[in-house]
Amino acid sequence: MSAGQTARSTRTASEARALAAERLIGQLLIGVTYVSVGLLAIGVVLMVADSISPTSGGPPLDLSTLGAQLVALEPAAFLWLGMLAVVAAPIGRVIVAAVAYARESDWLMLAISIGILVVITIGVISSVTLTA
Fold first, then answer.
1. Is the four-CA dihedral 62, 68, 71, 72 of positive or negative sign?
2. In which residue ranges of the chain is pLDDT below 50?
3. For residue 78, which of 31, 45, 29 has the smallest C-alpha distance?
């Protein structure tokens, strides 16, 4: 096998892995979108059933009681889970991309992905600290 053929087969395998990673990312985003829309829809239906006005405001997010609220079929739990899923979708996309870049040994893009995750983490920590 010549050097050109080896480079082409390596590039083809690399392109196939990149395509598989993009497909996985797409499926992840589609799945999380369906889950979040479903959770939000359930929350809205439960609000209507409980005669709660959507403009009346809502309870703050309390992760420690979210499970109990979910079991009690409280609308706020479904709405908060739907919102958390919406926020988690792009974060999950960056994580999957980072794993794909690590597998491809694309260190620059891996570093950029990690940098994005660090910025997101700082933002989440600062917002939790400010509201606590």
1. negative
2. none
3. 45
